[in-house]
Amino acid sequence: MGASLLRLHFHDCFVNGCDASVLLDDIPPSFKGEKTASPNANSLRGFEVIDTIKSKVESICPGVVSCADILAVAARDSVTALGGPSWQVELGRRDSTTASFDAARSHTIGQAQCSLFRGRLYNETDLDSELATSLKSNCPSTSGDENLSPLDATSPVRFDNAYFNNLVHNKGLLHSDQQLFSGGSTEAQVKTYSTNPTAFYEDFANAMVKMGKLSPLTGTNGQIRTNCRKVN
């Protein structure tokens, strides 16, 4: 669940900013939110956890803490609980009353559906042969689109730098991941992170702080939702 909460925060911030728009439910036919938009449909998880946190916060401090701030703090605490770094979360965001469509992801933890890596698995030659064999048992060439495999097969439930070691050894699950170590400008950074987890943790924490500042709603903009799934 930690990976899912981190992913929720990413998907929220990289649309119109960190405004909890990703949490809004559809209201047919007048409003379509981000939850059911591709590639989020049947992919994003953790909404019930945010609901529980929001309910407990509202019972103690009603109308003060936004859903956007809860997402930001939950993402930080999830990374820390999984063995990753911590960082200071700046608070004061407000919640949007609208939604948009887009996506972003973090691949150090979490899983991917078979349909997202089948092309790499069966058509590309730079995938470690042992990993490919194990993946094919769960991702047939013509079925099992929604079957899940870990983005980091080495330590799937721990936040660490194994993801970068995987790339160095041609074990990137997704094509886009392996491209980070394919002779381009990012290869040196991958090598650094693969041998220096401290550097990765520091850079990741700094990046999360910066991401959390993407176009927040403040002042009188937006609102503090009582229920994260719908506007007040």
What descriptive keywords fit this protein?
232 residues; mainly alpha; Peroxidase, domain 1; Peroxidase, domain 2; two-stranded antiparallel ribbon; 9 helices; globular
Write the layout of secondary structure elements.
Elements: H1 2-16, H2 47-60, H3 67-81, E1 111-113, H4 114-123, H5 129-136, E2 148-150, H6 162-168, H7 175-178, H8 187-195, H9 197-211
Antiparallel strand pairs: 1-2
Can you walk through the features of this model?
One of its GO terms (molecular function) is heme binding. Keywords: Calcium, Disulfide bond, Heme, Iron, Metal-binding, Oxidoreductase, Peroxidase. Its EC number is 1.11.1.7. With 232 residues, the chain is mostly helical. It has 2 domains: 1-107 and 205-212, Orthogonal Bundle (Peroxidase, domain 1); 111-203, Peroxidase, domain 2, CATH 1.10.420.10. 42% of the residues lie in helices and 3% in strands. The chain has 9 helices and 2 strands. It has helices at residues 2-16, 47-60, 67-81, 114-123, 129-136, 162-168, 175-178, 187-195, 197-211, and strands at 111-113, 148-150. A two-stranded antiparallel sheet has the order 1-2. The protein is globular, with a radius of gyration of 19 Å. It starts with a helix and ends in a 21-residue tail after the last helix. The model has no long low-confidence stretch (mean pLDDT 90).
